């Protein structure tokens, strides 16, 4: 379990294709890693399969993970967002994040507004029912607040897509991978799991 508060930015030092799978090596900057621990890498819960004293860790990404996330675009040199699993004593500064990606979104535009950035993404319409204005969303592992949520097919979107807008403060822009994205880039999306549980409960009442 995670909270969407990015602790480190890691740099991918190697990305090795293994048939339909992928193995990545990341310089995490985390000195006390443990074999088998879970780390959210761009919002995807991955397992440390090996590491060294310098904090360089290896992660295995199965074909299932690659098909459901945007991690397939990762190459050596890329910067990734990292978060270790929370503990019972951790402050929940973000929201409940599982590291289980629900889909991918595409960056449409970035507009500088004062010192902040107003950013818009295009998101699959099947996720619209889980999102509300001023609610939480996780993009590439970052817990963010939704400023605006459009309707499927609205604002020039295809019928199976909709737009979301967010305001990003300078700290988040400078200390996560958001600042490295270009229009057209894909990011991992995880909606608030509480919304999914509420939907499931209502369906069976």
List the helices and strands and how they pair.
Elements: E1 8-18, E2 21-27, E3 38-41, E4 44-51, E5 56-61, H1 63-68, E6 79-84, E7 103-113, E8 116-124, E9 136-139, E10 142-145, E11 148-149, E12 161-168, H2 170-175, E13 186-191, H3 193-203
Antiparallel strand pairs: 1-2, 1-6, 2-5, 3-4, 3-6, 4-5, 7-8, 7-13, 8-12, 9-10, 9-13, 11-12
Order of helices and strands: EEEEEHEEEEEEEHEH
**Into which percentage range does the β-strand content fall?**
35-45%
Rg measurement, Å: 17 Å
Major β-sheet profile: 7 strands, antiparallel
Give the integer mean of the pLDDT values.
93
Topology, number of strands:
13
Our count of helices gives: 3
- Helix-and-strand structural type: mainly beta
Between the first and last Cα atoms, what is the distance in angstroms? 28 Å
Strand order of the largest sheet: 10-9-13-7-8-12-11
């Amino acid at each position: 379990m995670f909270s969407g508060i990015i602790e480190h930015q890691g740099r991918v030092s190697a990305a090795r294709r293994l048939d339909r799978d992928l193995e990545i090596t990341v310089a995490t900057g985390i000195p006390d890693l443990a074999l088998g621990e879970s780390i959210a890498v761009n919002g995807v819960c991955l397992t440390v399969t090996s590491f060294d004293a310098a904090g360089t860790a290896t992660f295995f990404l199965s074909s299932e993970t690659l098909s459901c996330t945007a991690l397939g675009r990762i190459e050596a040199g890329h910067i990734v967002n990292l978060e270790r699993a929370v503990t019972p004593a951790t402050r929940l500064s973000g929201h409940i994040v599982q590291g289980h990606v629900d889909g991918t979104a595409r960056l449409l535009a970035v507009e500088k507004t004062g010192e902040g950035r107003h950013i818009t993404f295009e998101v699959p319409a099947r996720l619209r029912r889980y999102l509300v204005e001023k609610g939480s969303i996780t993009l590439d592992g970052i817990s963010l607040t939704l400023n605006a949520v459009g309707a499927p097919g609205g604002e020039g979107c295809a019928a199976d897509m909709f737009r979301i807008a967010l305001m990003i403060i300078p700290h988040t822009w400078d200390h996560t991978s958001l600042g490295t994205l270009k229009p057209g880039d894909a990011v991992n999306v995880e909606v608030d799991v509480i919304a999914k549980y509420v939907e499931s409960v209502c369906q069976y009442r």
